[in-house]
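Order emerges. For instance:

***
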Amino acid sequence: MPVHLEPGPDNVHWGYFDARLAPRATVDSGDRLTISTVSGGPDLMPAAPLKVPPALPAIHQKVPRQLGPHILTGPVAVRGARPGQVLQVDIEAIDVFYDWGYNSVRPLAGALPDDFAENRHMHIVLDRARKCWRLPWGQEVPLAPFFGVMGTAPPPAWGMISTAPPRKNGGNLDNKELVAGSTLYLPIFVPDALFSVGDGHGVQGDGEVCVTAVETGLTGTFRLTLRDDMRLEWPMAETPTHMITMAFDPDLDDCVVIALRQMLDLICARTGLDRYQAYSLASLTADVRVTQVVNGNKGIHVMLAKRYLANPT
């Protein structure tokens, strides 16, 4: 029977990754599973008539928040996973778990940390029939859900780390391209991989400039597959039309260098072009995009249409 991992005090960890976490579920390579997630601390819960899922107050009461803001469901162990392999995460479906989300503006946060002196929180209601979010002042924004955080356990030597900055194990990627139908590839650093997911976003722009999207709960269906034929230093992704390389660093310029070098590596490996040719091809056809600028480690992702990776010979 397919695994469905529900959020609750026994199935989540709040604010951190840690290689020492015990798995909440175990699957075999190639298995499909469904994972539901929740978001938000007690101060961000809405008033009636909006409904708070029972899992959220139970988590608030019983699960300590440590280091970061994200409530992650998991981890999920993948039998036979070994350090050095790659975890292929096929995101098959995403649905909104509850019918509201929130957005926050805080002093000393976001892309303009000195511009806003007050805390402002707003709740945003989902119109399922119209597939859009209704902002309090009347505008509508199309529903475009994705998980902000997807990651494997970090190397044991890192100890307990915050979920806030994205790193080589993935984590707080905040990449809006990772919708249903896309695939994420994550380096594996510990036995069983230990995959966790959370930080559901109902919609987000590139940059995530105020530090929050429409923060909400999501339910995702994933297929987790071990890859022995790949080696990755950084997460990578693909959509039906594009390959995506990623990098995270406090300096956006360094992110560009890292992500672009990965894309050149990919072009050379897939096409047989030399590095000069790959560099020219990237300049003509690749898009260098800012993923987010608000999580300590900023993010860049480089997108290249798959048609350019066909071997020209």
